[in-house]
Structure formats: structure tokens, C-alpha cells
Amino acid sequence: EAQVTQNPRYLITVTGKKLTVTCSQNMNHEYMSWYRQDPGLGLRQIYYSMNVEVTDKGDVPEGYKVSRKEKRNFPLILESPSPNQTSLYFCASSFEPMNTEAFFGQGTRLTVV
Amino acid sequence: KNEVEQSPQNLTAQEGEFITINCSYSVGISALHWLQQHPGGGIVSLFMLSSGKKKHGRLIATINIQEKHSSLHITASHPRDSAVYICAVSRGEGTDKLIFGTGTRLQVFP
Fold first, then answer.
1. Please, are residues A35 and A74 in contact by the beta-carbon 8 Å criterion?
2. Fewer CB under 10 Å: which end of chain A, C or N?
3. What is the pLDDT of residues B68-92, one digit of tens each?
């Protein structure tokens, strides 16, 4: 089954404690993105990757890092989480950069206290 | 002003009603996406379209490029259609960047 898998689904952590949210897709997609969803603001892009070892900033990259060492995996790293990073995070992938369907993960609800 | 605007923000309906959700955008696009998000669940792509009309089951999506407007219609609505419906546009700038509307929350009552 074609899917994007995120882990964990839920995470509560403390300010400053490094964490990683994993994202993996099994569709051989080149393009992967991370988004955060906040009430009243919709989804906003954090980082995207056009292929292995090619990543770039989205609209709200501050406080986040990503890596793309393998085509299937695109982890999101919060080196020093802060409460304003409390949000619902989605990973997405697509085959080509434009005009193709995007597949989303189930979401990771992160709370930073 | 947001580049992608949806209306209404909230919508309630009785089972069986015909539902329309609207999306207007102010930027040049290569494609428009309609997404569905169930409570506590992930996001599922319903349609991607760049012209005309698409139909899948009870769902119909239309787009008017000249007017920069799209509509999502649900015929014979059912309580399982209750979800947040999100409109997103692809800017077509060589990346997979999507710009999202803030969503329309639909509740269908039996």
C-alpha cells in the first residue's frame, strides 16, 4: 500500500530537549516536504527536499533542521524545541514538483512544555 | 489578505443535502488541490485539477482559471463526509510548494 509514515503520532517534550520526527515513504517519490498546521493559519511549509541531499527552506524554517540521506526518509529535527513549536506536523511526498498528487502522513501532534 | 481564501469557514448540513465549498486564489497556479482531513486523522488528497471538472463518486470539483475560483461539491451528503476540507494551490515555480487555505469545517448530521 502506498503510504507516508510518520512517527511518533503524539509527543510531549520539554523545552530544549532535542527530538526527531521521522517520515518515510514507499512510493519512490523524489519530493518530500514538512508542514506545520496551526489554528487559523492553515498549513505552512517548513522545509522541502527535491531529492537525496537536496533540501531547502520553506516559509517557516526557523528552529528546524532536516536531512535527506536516503530517498525514502526525510526526518524533521528540532535541536532545541520551544513552546511556540507546539503544533500538528505533516510530512508529504509527491512524484514530481508540480501537477502531481501529494501524499500526506497521518500527522504528529507535538506539545512542548 | 491570504493568497488562498475558502468559504464558508464552517458548514453544517443535514444528511442528503447538496454541499458546496468555495476556494478563491489570487496568485498564478499550475494546479489546485482539494484535501480532506478527518478529526484526529491525516490528510487525504481528493482531487488535483488544472482545468475543467473532475468527479469521484459523490464528489465533484470544478475550477475556473479565468476567475481564479474552484468549488468542491458533495452530492447526497452523509455523516461520514464530516471533515475539514482544504484547498491548496501549486505555484508551479519548480518546487512542490503548496499554498493552503485555512479549511472549511463540515458537519453533516443524520
1. no
2. N
3. 999 999 999 999 999 999 999 987 6
